[in-house]
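anyone seen this seq b4? input:
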Amino acid sequence: MKNSFMDRLGIRWMILGLIGLGLAACERPPMESQQLGYRGTGTVEINNPRLQQAVLAANKAPEPLPAVSSEGPKASEVYKNVQVLGDLSVGEFTRLMAAITQWVSPEQGCVYCHANNNFESDDLYTKLVARRMLQMTVHINSTWKSHVADTGVTCYTCHRGQPVPAYLWYEQPAPKQGGAMGWRNAQNTPATGVGLTSLPYDPFKMYFLDKESIRIQSTKALPSGEDRALRTVESLQHTESNYALMMHFAGSLGVNCTYCHNSQNFASWSGSRPQRVTAWHGIQMLRDLNLSYFDPLKPTYPASDLGPLGDAPKANCATCHQGVYKPLAGASMLKAHPELAAAPAK
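predicted toks r here
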């Protein structure tokens, strides 16, 4: 009798332990919901205000440096080897360099990019990368308003006081095939970039470097070979990669699917929120940046800064957003640095 009671007690504790283990993966209340569209349209955002406070605290923009006069000689007339924004006054140029030091290398200082006592030298690869990134920043602010609007970006948007942004990506080696796992399709290797799911862990090359279409639903049930060539149908593998990308969107922006989509019909554009169009432009922007700016820098980097396949670091949604649907919670640092919004010289 005693053994039977102890057995039942042990089972109860085991059940309670399993319940506790299951609940450990859930978010602790309180939870808040916000209706983002007409009621009944499946556009409700679910957030945890307790977790949001920490994310917002990490996305606070720094105070700008005091403004300076645009009068006086141009930077290109005073300093040597100024290839970007040399039309700024010496005061404006010096202020921007001081701000970039705070944004990118506050501990290392100017010598992170510049050779000591020889600032015009291009000997350090970090200066070559910084120059190209500065050109890219101006390009984003002047060319991609369809995504960044007038809020724009600065070096701090990605760097947050670190020489290397916290969120970059490299191409990943193909997983080993065969064995008990069979053909894995780059799955079952949980990665933070796709929400620790068992979805393909490297969707970024397909969509942020290559021009793979983002579409899940097929238009035909029994496709022919021609249909597959025209992409009027979607394979299971392609669908899995699409979902991996969507998980990346959700995690990077700190939102759920209904931030862009109407859950009654995910594929419908007419029922979607305007944010879906903004996200579409963001995908095109990332392809442009990775192909035009990040990937071509490969010869500039030392081998230690390249990925496992020898490629240069590249950007995805998390690089700028870092957990909020608007980088830095929508704060515009560009207002204090309008020189970074100027159209690039032809």
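Strands lie at 32-35, 44-47. The chain has a mean pLDDT of 83. kinda curious what u guys think
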